[in-house]
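Let us practice reading a record.
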Amino acid sequence: MLSPMMWLGLVALGVLAVTSIRRIPEGQVYTLRRFGGHTRVMHSGMHLMLPFLERVAHKISLTGANVPVDGLVAADQRYRGIVYFQVLDPERADRVIDRVDGLLQERTRSLFADAALPDAFDSRRQWLKQSLNSDVRERGLLVTRVDLNAVG
């Protein structure tokens, strides 16, 4: 016969075991933070983590995402754009993933205001994509496509 303290210990051990196991879905990466800022990355599959010492900082999708960009003006014509991007290096992207939308929107607007913007529409999209990639590749991101549409 188990005493109440032994039951409590078994229940606590069971809760600890259940909270230690994480299943990461296919196409996602979790970054974990420990006290003191140490970060580790868990790729898809079953993993053990240290409850109470580690916490999930970010759930990063590797399948891609997009960011709408408004307020683009070139040669007295207004444009609306969509920047499609993908995370290539989750460890480097973890540092900017919280602000990636603002980062891409701000950089696209500043590039679009550049006087060296190509005149041809397809060349403009390609130039924007290459310019954005030169800025974000070091942060673990890849811009896969830039769509532009003229507004009114």
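A brief commentary: The longest strand covers residues 77-87.
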